Amino acid sequence: MKILISLLFVFLSGYSNFVFSQETIGVKSSTKGFSIGGHGAYLSYTASSLQFEPHTGYGFGGYLQYGFTHQIAVALNVQHYWMDPKTTELIKSPYPYTEIDLIGKYIFGSTNSPVRPFLSLGGNYSTQEEMFYDISDPNLKKIDATYSGFTACGGAGINFFLTPRFTIDLSGLYHLGAFGVTQNGTHYDATYDFTAFKFLGGFSYHF
Question: InterPro entries attached here (predicted)?
């Protein structure tokens, strides 16, 4: 009887180890816990009361993400761009544009899949700096303007896991919000509605 119990214990121990090893082998993606990444970025934004056509630009950025589970995560993104003013005459061109995103993510699929699409929803803070001459002023006064504001943003993306922790990332986000304006140190009450779309592509590591 003791021999039978011993054999049963050995069998159960071996079976549990086999199942555990199979589960470990089956893990192809890990999105729980911290992740960091870097990306290149393309941005196009429109503020109809400020410009005649969309301004576009390229830049770079990075992000920090925390996965509460393998499907629910929150991320902080930072991007910096150099924007083409198109037909708008500026003293400095391209001009700088910086944004910060705080977004929640729902990540589809399971850890057994190396391809993990996701949806994003959150908020964004954007700021840009422009320098131009006031053509309505006889002396062509130089204006140093800062436009900044908050937006709601949402979008989608996909993570391709080359290993369970290293990914290629592609995503897009659409923004809807308003800029406030400061010119030569004076803040004005006027606001300007704007919309924006950006595309991000890069790499990340999941700890």
Answer: OMP/PagP_B-barrel
